[in-house]
Amino acid sequence: MRKDTASPLRFQPRLAATAFHLLLLAAVLALFAGRKPGLFRSQAILDLLPGFYSHVSNFALSYLFFAGVGFAWLMTGVRVHALVLAALVLGGVNVAYELLLPLLNTRDPMDAVHGVAGTLLGLAWLLILRRFGLRRAPDPGT
């Protein structure tokens, strides 16, 4: 016997929003892969920001984690203030780890800056996605 239960997903992403989200994730992964010389390392980025690839891992990990988890949260109907609070916590943890906890790490303020930038860009994308890229999920009982 099948038991009907309500879906925890209150919203569905629009197709274009999902495609753009995946494109952003792929672009950030390509930046992360650029840490090593090769196909994904951009000379234009190095000319603009000479030390970027030294800190890109913090940027990429913060963005990928926040945008990935946040995308799922948006489907469940998490409110904006919860997203902002999560971004503040992630940014604060990043800064605290980079500046105060030298465990398996050297203190590096630029790593903290890049981590916070990744979190803020993730938050900006999630706010745009919430405003323009979601629609109410259909009621499974109908």
Automatic annotation (TrEMBL):
Query: Can you tell me where the transmembrane regions are?
Result: 52-75, 82-100, 112-129
**Keywords noted in UniProt:** Membrane, Transmembrane, Transmembrane helix
User: Domain of life here?
Assistant: Bacteria
State what protein this is by name: VanZ-like domain-containing protein
